[in-house]
Amino acid sequence: MRQHHIPFGLTAALNDGRLNAWHLTIYFALVELFKRSNQDGPFSISRKKVMELSRIKAAPTYHKYINELQNLGYIQYHPSYHPKKGSSVRLVFRI
């Protein structure tokens, strides 16, 4: 069922003038990790994997744009400060 909602979330993100290329590359990386997780709710991510998929090289850039995606309502992000435990993300799809 979640597969049905993914195109709507991507369409909303692509049409949102507040988002730039950095927002979109991170968002698309999160969508890909969501699909790989085979979960319907929150899923675990690592900064390293998101940065790799989105081709972002600097941690400050990652943190800036993932926090902005949260502030704009595209994701719910709960960082983990544990070195082995991933952060939790939930994609908020807009229809």
UniProtKB/TrEMBL annotation:
<protein>
    <recommendedName>
        <fullName>Helix-turn-helix domain-containing protein</fullName>
    </recommendedName>
</protein>
